Amino acid sequence: MIQASGEAQPVVALFVSDVHLHEGIPRTTDAFLRFLDGPALHASHVYLLGDIFEYWAGDDDIDGGYNAGIVAALRRLSDSGVKLYWMAGNRDFLVGEEFAYRAGMTLLGDPTVVEHAGLRIVLAHGDAACTDDTDYMRFRAQVRDPSWQQRFLAMPLAERKAIIDGMRDGSRQAQRQKTMDIMDVNAGAIDALFASSGATVLVHGHTHRPAVHEGRGVVRHVLPDWDCDGAIPRGGWLALREDGVFVRVGVEG
Questions:
Q1: Which of 31, 221, 226, 236 could form a disulfide with 250 if both were Cys (CB 3.0 to 4.6 A apart)?
Q2: Dihedral angle of Cα 133, 139, 144, 150, to the nearest 10 degrees
Q3: How confident is the model at residue 176 (pLDDT cuts 50, 70, 90)?
């Protein structure tokens, strides 16, 4: 069940990341669909900030049963008048123009600066700031290269999915050898992002370490990851009210 935030002020924007949707997590999927068909309808803008899918093999996979249902739910939201935005994560960076068209959403670069409720906010997925994880940064540079993506997307869909499965296995094994600090954002990279954007608020996900960090006139909001299929359900989103106040809202499985 989705918990209501209880705020009386109109909601200007909602921010979500790291749902990691796939067919094997039915309760998490249901919770996300309830979010799209419920709370999200009452916001002016909804920002999906990466890793909404556990993986995305290419826009030619839209018409599969599970993926088609998610796209249809996103389209219902955008057709209702809510402005819907998508930023690529490290799992779903292959989402493209066809997906955006079918879902009725706008693709954003990483990072992107927006202004709401009198605030200048920089949005990011968060992985680009994990500069201490040098192995991951090399991998990120490779798979974000347009030439690599063009070659990869030219492969048959089944072959792409097999390669992605191998990448996911390799990623899980590599993470076992790394400390949480290495996989977290680098303080210098965060400072540079604030400086280059001129923003006073940063919203990002990726790290699965939800928190609010304040200092030197800036605030960093880290979004939660979602898992309603485990023993202790977790997940949620960040709401920005018209008065400039941020409210965290949680989910239950």
A1: 236
A2: -170
A3: low
